[in-house]
C-alpha cells in the first residue's frame, strides 16, 4: 500500500481523462459549497463573465441586478443593455486591481476616481469607457452618475449571497497621478493617451494574490455570509504591450491568474474556484471549443462551461434536468432540459469587450 493506492478515479489521468469523453468529465465534481435558486448572485469580471447572466436566465433564474435601468428608459427607448451585462453598471472588470479599487471607492476607502474626458461636447467616464457610449451632457452629470453607481455597488456587495468574479488579464494601465487602474488603455475606447500620465503594468502573481486577499477580506467584513466564486477567463489576450509575443504573453497572464486564485482559494472556506479556463483551454480538449481565430470561444464551448457550472453548484437543477444522478452528467443538459428554459426570453445583450479596441489602429 502507498498514498495513491486508495484514491478515487478522478486522481488518475488515464482513468479520469484518457478513458472519458471530454464532454463527460465532471471537472468541478467537488465544489466547496452549493447554491440555491433563490440566492442573489452578483457577477463581475472580464467579457467572458457576461455569459453567466444569459445562462442563468435560460434556466429560469434571475441574476442579481443591483443597479437597474430607470423604468422611463424602458418606456421611451433609452439605452438599457449596459444595465444587464453585470449586477451593476461597471462594465468589464479585467484585473484584480480594478475590482479592488471599485470596492474601495464604493465603501469610501478611497475617493471617487474622477477621470472624465470631453469630446465634441460630450463627457466620457474613462473608468467605464464602454458603459455610456453616447457620453454625458455635462461633467456634473458624469460625476452624479458615477456617484449613484458606486452607491449601488455598495448595496450589491452588502446584500448579495454570492459574488462571482471572472479574472481576465494581468496587463493593465495605471494613472501615474492618482494610481488608479483603467479597464482599457486611454486612447483606445475613449480618451487620449498621455505617455507621461498613463503607464503600462503587468501584474505579478504576488500582486494578484495580494489584491485577491484584500478583496476577500473586505467582502467578508461587509457581508460575512457571502460566498465567493473565482474563475479565470479562457479567452487569450487580443494584444499585448509586453515585450513578449501575444501567445507567450497570454500564457503568462492566464498562468499567473490561475496560480493566484488557487493559492487564495485554498485558504478560505467561503471561496471556491470554478474551472472555466481548464474546460476550454486545456490541451486535452483538443481546441474543440475555439472559433477559427483560435481565440474566441464558440457557443458550444460556453454551453459546456455554463452547464458544468449550473449542475455543479445547483444540485436541484441537475436533479430536475436528468433522471440520472451520475456525477459525470454533462450539465449542458441542465440548460436545455429545464422547462423554464423554453419559456424564458433571451434578454442578455451581446458580449462586449473593451480589450478589442487594443487591436484597432488609431
Automatic annotation (TrEMBL):
Domain GSCFA: 40-309
InterPro entries xrefs: GSCFA
Pfam families xrefs: GSCFA (PF08885)
Stated name of the protein: GSCFA domain-containing protein
